[in-house]
Design goal:
The structure is a single chain. Helices cover about 50% and strands about 20% of the residues. It is built from 23 helices and 22 strands. The strands form four sheets. An eight-stranded mixed β-barrel has the order 13-14-16-17-18-19-20-21. A hairpin with a 4-residue loop joins β13 (about 365-370) and β14 (about 375-390). The structure holds ligand C2E and calcium ion (2 copies). One calcium ion (CA) binds near residues 382, 440, 472 and 502.
Amino acid sequence: MKKNISKISMPINILMVDDRHENLLALEAILKDMGHHLVFAHSGAEALKLVLKNEFAVIILDIEMPTMNGFDTASLIRKREKSKSTPIIFLTASNATETSIFQGYLVGAVDYLVKPIEPEILRAKVSVFVDLFVKTEQVRQQAALLHRMTQEAHREDISKLKKKSEEAMWQMAHYDVLTGLPNRNMIANRLRDAIEINRSTGSLLAFFLIDLNRFKEINDTLGHPHGDLILKEIGARLQEILPEPNMAARLGGDEFAILLPKLADIKDIDRVIQKIIKTLTTPFLIDGFDGLPIMVEASIGVALYPEHGTNPNALMQRADVAMYAAKQSGRGYAIYVPDLDKHSPEKLMLLTELRRAMDQNELTLYYQPKIAMVTKKVIGLEGLIRWKHPSRGMIPPDAFILSAEQTGLIGPLTLFVIEAAARQCKAWQKEGVAIPIAVNLSARNLMDARLPEQVSEILARYDLSPSSLQFEITESAIMADPHRAAELLARLHKMGHQFSIDDFGTGYSSLGYLKRLPVDEIKIDQSFVTDMVLDEHDETIVRSIIDLSHNLVVRVVAEGVENKETWDHLSALGCDVAQGYYISRPIPANELTRWLSESPWVV
Ligand code: C2E
Ligand code: CA
Ligand code: CA
């Protein structure tokens, strides 16, 4: 028991109430050796004041007192919060009647002592109550401690989780998931910083773009997982031959970039190019293909600071032009020559043809449904452009959108798409199918202040409400000029158009921005979705984007859903909407009309 008491930090208070001072002294003489703190009160009123301020382990209360007797005092003590369950021992004269004892219990006495007091008995009783008090206090302190600990543990958990997800977001924003190399953002930032430094030191800098030749064939013949393995290995090899402060990055697909921020000698470029070519042409050995060596060829384009450009964008563009020239010539690499720009015959031809294609109706929209996962309902369609080239067959958008962007043709092309979508939407409405259609906007479109006006003109012409036309914009298109993008998107949103962030997870939109944009929908990039069932890392990213979207109260769409397992997994993660080959490939309007009437999905 001693041990227990010593654990309690607060002193044990005992209150003794008697109107006669000599009685109090007698009580003190009996109890003082027990080591507790003894407090005197000479009246009921004084006792009440004391229980307001202190907590007592036990109260010894004389019944016969003038003005306020022991019973009245006890009943008031019971009404005070601090003392409502403090044990009270009544002191009574030997002639106490049964009724008065009963009355004492009614007002909350827990025990009686008859005068003259037996010291041993008083000490025994007091020590019983003190033990009880100590135990209660220990339980209370332990409970408080436990409560504090749980709270702290919880706080720690949350901050750990927050830190982890912030780290994951940062990682996602700056590194390529497949190869672990820095991504486009990261190398662009590094390039910008290097230019700043070199501006003052006057030193040279080189930026390389590397595009693998015919990598699609490798993917098609070996399968995507093996293609990925090769990309991973390329990443590792590039990193090995390019130690700090040099940097290799993966820009996406089969495109890589290299930054040599401090070029001592222009001849170093040749050396690096030879190293890259050597490392890429060293055969890749792939398991399961009987040791068949795979060779990879690349086209490398180089631009130099300050010779070819003095800002990051210019240098990247010039490197791109040089890379394209390298590809054309088949020489493997090229350093930018101003003449090359815009004069690549292939590109020029495609562009003049694109202009013609628009006039001659070679461009057409295909449609791909978006399905609400819970209701299995078709809640929207995405319009995706196709070029039916008379001699080259179907050309996918990736082959011409970029060129259209670089030349300004994207303006008319986007209007063409919006008009086609509006016309088709109206046609379906007339057949009783009212589904909104989403079209893709480019970064360039977001810089065009006339767009909202042009859009509403088209809608008016087809007598459509703004809710029937939605827009999809990639994260990177927004981040190209966030302020202008936000302004234009706000205008479109105010007009009544919904808007999705496309390819989410591949660029870096700061959370702050995301919150300020009028976003209705986030589309998880298909590169994370396609393999999420097999790849834990992808699954984590998909899961975090779903959580993030729900925290922002934004609908979340998974693109690239190719099979039932992926659908089921997404459904378990609480994803709202799915889009992908599992539901339907993008198909022409007339086929989609049939699909809508025949498919098991709800229209
Ligand atoms: P996006 O907006 O991310 O469109 C989705 C792309 O993924 C489409 O490629 C679609 O065919 C493909 N896809 C859909 N489901 C699956 C699937 O389950 N698995 C796989 N592997 N792929 C799937 P598409 O049609 O070749 O378009 C490529 C990109 O071109 C689009 O990517 C979009 O950024 C751009 N694009 C297409 N049409 C337009 C347009 O009218 N204007 C602009 N500015 N860009 C467009
Ligand atoms: Ca899209
Ligand atoms: Ca997308």
